[in-house]
Design brief:
Helix content of chain B: 25-40%
Helix content of chain A: over 70%
Order of helices and strands of chain A: HHHHHHHHH
Number of helices of chain A: 9
Structural class of chain A: mainly alpha
Number of strands of chain B: 10
Shape of chain A: flat
Strand content of chain A: under 5%
Oligomer: heterodimer
Strand content of chain B: 25-35%
Number of strands of chain A: 0
Largest sheet of chain B: 6 strands, mixed
Order of helices and strands of chain B: EEEHEEHEHHHEHEHEEHH
Radius of gyration of chain A: 21 Å
Distance between the termini of chain A: 51 Å
Shape of chain B: globular
Largest interface: A-B, 18 and 27 residues
Chain lengths: 218, 242
């Protein structure tokens, strides 16, 4: 039926690699930013200061109720209008991912913090550590360890979601492949290849999650 | 050293501590006992401010625990506490557990803290376990590390909240031995425990609590000889006669 010619892939390896680098860069930065902001939000939500708790809860509820693509549009089209100057596709998309992911990460991190026995913070306070020192040196390290598998699962979803950047014209892996596919009339080969690459990365990562879960369970 | 005056505390409508007044002199060993739910754990946790109180006053070495102007973190560093469930930090090895407070609170260098940690581990008989993680130790060993962690801060008093209740019977003595030693060295100690043997042996005074009240506060001779209150008599007969 098809006369498949996969030589198109090595022929365009450098272009595909550029796209892949963009995908990795976005995923990596969004994970780091999302975890930092998410940790901050989680700490606000468990702090016993009602105003802060409500602000953080409102943030989380807002972003969890919006489609990711809408957040991307917002940052790309509306923020430049508000600022009166263009923001640039990459930074607007990155900020959108961080803001969006932070809402999910904060819920994961909050659950992780709650999974640490309260006695641990009490013991930290008992030797004279402040609340923030107790969180930093005693509670958060344990929380992050317990939630590594879930954080990684969320990272896999994010890795797939970065493909949405095509709407603002950023050249990630998928967009690069699509450009080549259209230009060289190799739609089947390229989209097969893209599927295989996404599958390999995500499947390997979920095997990693399973391994970590088993190791943490023992 | 520790002065508590008319301390009361409520959980909602339930009063856990009723007008508790108690003083512990420097070098004194006080055992607090009583049926479960009598408020003894809550009482001991108010001494270092882990449990805030609703009324009354607590001072340690003349410094108010309840005053807003007091730096509670600094006070806690000077009052060691040992918990029922050890509460060692599971992500750190034994030495790191003992070093953390020394470095972050007292500002000791890692080398100084290490030296102190190893000396204390030797003292509680665990020198060879310095690099193990808490999960690799038995309950009794973990509790001895917890005591060393408290001592590393060179506290002026030590609080023990049921230190042997979570232990298998054969491990209780190794922990009590360390505590007896500490008492002999003149440490001011407040100990919530059901170990009446320990109370008889080292306690200067025994405080009996029931329903959030201090029912009896007597020297250990008086307490074991002739407890005045009926509730204390009943409690003693329950835990001693079997």
């Amino acid at each position: 039926m098809f006369d498949l010619d996969f030589s198109v892939i090595p022929a365009n390896a450098s272009l595909l690699w550029e796209g892949m680098k963009m995908t990795f860069l976005l995923t990596g930065l969004a994970i780091c930013g999302g975890i930092v902001l998410g940790t901050f939000l989680a700490l606000l939500r468990i702090a016993k200061v009602p105003v802060l708790m409500h602000i953080a809860a409102a943030y989380v509820n807002l972003f969890r109720s919006l489609p990711l693509i809408l957040v991307i549009f917002w940052l790309f089209f509306l923020v430049p209008l508000l600022l009166g100057r263009p923001v640039g596709a990459f930074s607007s998309v990155l900020v959108a991912f961080i803001l969006f992911e932070a809402a999910y990460y904060s819920e994961i991190i909050r659950a992780g913090i709650n999974s640490v026995r309260p006695g641990q913070l009490a013991a930290a306070r008992a030797i004279g550590l402040t609340y923030s020192q107790g969180m930093r040196y005693v509670v958060l390290p344990q929380a992050f360890r317990a939630m590594t598998p879930i954080l990684l699962t969320q990272a896999i979803i994010l890795f797939q979601d970065t493909s949405l950047v095509y709407v603002v014209g950023l050249r990630d892996f998928l967009v690069s492949a699509e450009i080549i596919a259209n230009r060289d009339q190799k739609l089947v080969e390229m989209f097969l290849f893209v599927a295989v690459v996404y599958f390999v990365f995500c499947f390997a990562a979920s095997m990693g999650v399973r391994f970590l879960q088993k190791r943490l369970a023992t | 050293m520790i002065e508590m005056k008319s301390v009361s505390k409520w959980y909602g409508k339930f009063q856990v501590l009723k007008d508790c007044t108690l003083s512990v002199a420097k070098g004194e060993v006080i055992v607090v006992c009583g049926p479960s739910g009598s408020g003894k754990s809550t009482l001991i946790k108010t001494v270092n401010g882990l449990e805030p109180i609703d009324s009354g006053e607590i001072t340690v070495a003349g410094i108010s625990i309840t005053a807003k102007s007091t730096n509670l973190d600094q006070m806690r560093a000077k009052i060691g506490m040992v918990f029922q469930n050890f509460e060692l930090f599971p992500h750190m090895n034994v030495t790191e557990n003992i070093k953390l407070g020394q470095i972050k609170v007292l500002g000791r260098t890692p080398a100084e803290a290490e030296q102190k940690a190893l000396a204390l581990l030797d003292r509680v008989g665990l020198a060879e376990h310095a690099n193990k993680h808490p999960s690799q130790l038995s309950g009794g060993q973990q509790q001895r590390v917890a005591i060393a962690r408290g001592l590393a801060m060179e506290p002026m008093a030590m609080l023990f909240d049921e230190p042997t209740s979570a232990l298998d019977p054969e491990m209780i003595n190794e922990v009590l031995d360390v505590m007896v030693q500490l008492a002999k060295e003149g440490m001011t100690m407040m100990v919530v425990t059901h170990e009446m043997g320990f109370a008889r042996k080292v306690a200067d005074r025994v405080v009996f609590m029931d329903h959030g009240e201090i029912v009896e506060d007597a020297t250990s001779q008086e307490f074991f000889g002739s407890p005045r209150s009926e509730r204390a008599q009943e409690f003693l007969s329950k835990i001693l006669n079997h």
